[in-house]
Amino acid sequence: MFEDVPPLPGTEGTAALGGVSAFALDHAVLDAVFRQSSVGVHVLDQELRVIRVTGPALAKRDVAEEEVLGRPAAEAYRRFGVDVDEHVLREVLDGGPPARDVLMRGRPPGDTGREHVYSVSVYPLYDPAPDGAERPAIGLVATVTEVTDRILAERRLALLYEARERIGRTLDVERTARELVEVTAPGFAGSVVVALTDAVLRGKPPELRRPGETPLLRCTAVGGSGRTEGDAPLPEPGAVLLPGLFGERLPDGPELRPWDGGVRLVAPLAVRGQLLGAVAFGRPPGADPYTEDDLAVVEGVAAHTATCLENALRFTREHIVMTALQSWPLRPEGETRHAVELAQRHRPGGTGAGSWFDVIALPGGRVALVVGQVERPGLSSVATMGRLRTAVYSLTTLDLAPHELLARLHAVTQRLAREQGHGDGPGADEPAASCTIAVHDPVTGRLDLARAGSSLCVAVRPDGSLDTDLVDEGPLLGDDGPPFACSSHFLPEGTTLCLASSARADGGPSQARVAQALAAPDRGPHAMADDLAALLAPERVLLVARTLRLPASDVAAWELPGELSAVAPTRHAAEERVREWGLDVDPLTVELIVSELVTNAVRHGAPPYALRLLRGDSTLTVEVRDGAATAPHLRHAKAADEGGRGLHICAMLADAWGVRYEEDGKTVWAELALDAEEGGGGERTGA
Predict the structure, then answer these.
(1) Which of 49, 301, 553, 556 has the lowest CB atom count within 10 Å?
(2) Using an 8 Å Cβ cutoff, are 193 and 227 in contact?
């Protein structure tokens, strides 16, 4: 075959391997290439006709030599199932650069059901001139190597990489299912169907798989063409898919299954034995069938998707819990409507920052306004918020001053830190919270404030003046601890108090913007709250309260001499005022309570002494004040004792009673419930 091939220039007479001449070596190399090499070597003349082809390449493709030799390249390579672009060949022949590693696809006669990929490199052939001058190319030589397996492996690796990059970018179950479809269709599959269990779609934890059982699956995401191998339509989202698309039972791993005349690749989406759903891949007619290598890559994609679904499900469940905990019920406004006119706002953000506010009715017509926020967001912060809110509500029943209440709340926060396993060493990540408590007395107009941490605390007086220095910032709850900043003010009626949670990270809106939002105090609290809420960061809460005064006709007060002889006329005066008010309460009960409280104050207290009756919508409050800080306590007198039954009688007759300590004494109070229609619905008269 190579008898007429001349030696390469400059090699005549030179020795090569084993003493063989270079000329003989050239013949040996050409013989090895064209007779033994599996790499296809094709030689084309100037007319782009095939004149030489390696024998193994022809035998491998089951193509006879006479079907190729002497034929134009486009016609010859069509026998191999490959369409050749003659423009590329002509460009190299006309002096262009060699074409290296050009990928070409085809379906050879012996394997038409599967697409093959070839790497083709084309180089020009020159007839060397003795003087070294350049001459036109006399033909082309092309090397052809099948790289189908390499290309498929690269595609599978690229699919795995893309799955890890694009699936699970959002913590949403349904979005994660759609991302699986977007990654695999149409490159890997002509059609993709993702179905999840009902439990997962409802945000509930998945159940462990039981042998032979498959839970209900619902179509969640669909992608690709509307038809599959069996020419059957793809299911609609929400459709029940078992039994049906995935078979009577789900496989334990990726598996090929017949479906409506075609074959589908079905894989479960499971984590640690818990089934979250399944995915089915299909390819259109004429596409390459799935192989064992495809099963392996699907196993990796399904495992990653299942992990992302589990993360999204965990986030969904935590978000549901956080939303439920953060959506605390508000206190009835009817209990405080004679003390403040209130507007409440909450700007949700979905992160569970643990912000809360509260409006708590206190004895004597007073009202406590509470705004707080746990420092670090998350489910644990929302849970801590709920426990702190409950603690605040419980501590207010003790009638503590705001700064004393914060001191008790600080102890609660530290205990929560120990219970949660934090605080075992210095610098531990202990839960901390900011909290502002304001107590407004509608009888006197007094406002007592205490603050732990940072928050927005501003008062707008009826004349439009803005007071931003109501109380200093204090240490965080659970951090440095008491003493906490506190202050007292006497506010004119119609003053608007604005309280908002504000973590130190964002600092809250500037005073200038707050002043602009609170301008024109003649506007209602709701209009102010709307303007202020727009300035707050997400997960912040806001209270806007306009202070009111209890009408003088609802208050009756007497200064008392420090003598027991004053008890009788005092109780008669109280009984007479109750009759004037027309309250639905037994006057004798009021007389007994007044008599016992005044007697205890005179005997065990210190001057000055005072009695006050407060008429509310649903309660009548009896208050007796004296200048002693001694603590009265309820005891059970013996049968022969002549005294010691005063507080016991009050506790039996009243619906509630307690003691409120002040800087210069204490107030013992008792509340009697009124009939809603009689006590609060009629016209109020009296001095």
Answers:
(1) 553
(2) no
Contact 25, 32 (CB under 8 A): no
Contact criterion met (CB below 8 Å) for 254 and 303:
no
- Picking from 440, 442, 420, 445, the residue whose alpha carbon sits closest to that of residue 430 is 420
Q: Which amino acid is at 404?
A: E
Residues 6+ apart with CB under 8 A from 601: 560, 609, 624, 625, 626, 668
CA distance 664 to 677: 38
Q: Do the beta carbons of residue 368 and residue 336 sit within 8 Å?
A: no
Query: Which strand (E) or helix (H) includes residue 195?
Result: strand 191-197
The structure tokens 């179905």 sit at 195
Residue range 271-305, pLDDT digits in tens: 988 999 999 998 887 788 888 889 999 999 999 99
pLDDT digits (tens, 9 = 90+) for 459-469: 988 888 888 88
Look up the pTM and report it.
Answer: 0.61
Gap between the Cα atoms of 595 and 571, Å rounded: 6
* Nearest residue to 305 via CA among 200, 190, 235: 200
Do strands 262-271 and 255-259 pair parallel, antiparallel, or not at all (unpaired)?
Answer: antiparallel
The answer, yes or no, to whether residue 661 has pLDDT greater than 80, is yes
Beta bridge partners of 547: 340
Distance CA 540, CA 508 (A): 9
Distance between terminal CA atoms of the chain?
Answer: 133
Strands 99-106 and 116-126: antiparallel
Helices and strands: H and E segment counts in the chain: 16, 25
Angle at 78 between CA 74 and CA 84, to 5 degrees: 45
Whole-number Cα distances in Å, 686 to 84, 533, 556, 578:
108, 42, 10, 10
Would you state the structure tokens that stand for residue 407, as one six-digit string? 């001191």
CB 586 within 8 A of CB 636: no
